Amino acid sequence: MAYFPIFINVENVKVLVIGLGCIAARRINVLKNFGAEITVITKEVKTNVENIDIKIKEFEEDDIKEIYDIVIAATDNNAVNKNIIKLAKEKNIKYYNSISDKNDNNFFFPAVIENDEIVCGLTSKNGLNHKIAKQYADILRNTLCVEKKAE
């Protein structure tokens, strides 16, 4: 299946991230840069992120509320992530993403390439080949920086 690239305004969008490892931190930082309001629930802080609401506690099913527009399951436990996505669907959360299983996602996080004038999102066609997406994203970043300096 191919995914259609779409850009949405996430300014002031409420995001719940459960888990706080390296992948979660990357996703948090991208969303934060675009103005999302982020809440994190985690048993332990495994990486540093700033200016977000972090609740250090065990995840509970009642943590997923209808006020959230995006839920990201980013724990190191596949069964917990699967349950988080199940609950997000039951609560009619618009967008949900799991770091464990692409079949549990209704959107992917692209590589984000931006300068002062443009923003691009890049992913492989099926959302699985992160290596090739990163290679092309690096090429685009280098190209945009060179063009930007030449102006």
Automatic annotation (TrEMBL):
<keyword id="KW-0560">Oxidoreductase</keyword>
<keyword id="KW-0627">Porphyrin biosynthesis</keyword>
<dbReference type="Pfam" id="PF13241">
    <property type="entry name" value="NAD_binding_7"/>
</dbReference>
<dbReference type="InterPro" id="IPR036291">
    <property type="entry name" value="NAD(P)-bd_dom_sf"/>
</dbReference>
<dbReference type="GO" id="GO:0004325">
    <property type="term" value="F:ferrochelatase activity"/>
</dbReference>
<dbReference type="GO" id="GO:0019354">
    <property type="term" value="P:siroheme biosynthetic process"/>
</dbReference>
<keyword id="KW-0520">NAD</keyword>
<dbReference type="GO" id="GO:0043115">
    <property type="term" value="F:precorrin-2 dehydrogenase activity"/>
</dbReference>
<comment type="pathway">
    <text>Porphyrin-containing compound metabolism; siroheme biosynthesis; sirohydrochlorin from precorrin-2: step 1/1.</text>
</comment>
<dbReference type="InterPro" id="IPR006367">
    <property type="entry name" value="Sirohaem_synthase_N"/>
</dbReference>
<dbReference type="InterPro" id="IPR028161">
    <property type="entry name" value="Met8-like"/>
</dbReference>
<protein>
    <recommendedName>
        <fullName>precorrin-2 dehydrogenase</fullName>
        <ecNumber>1.3.1.76</ecNumber>
    </recommendedName>
</protein>
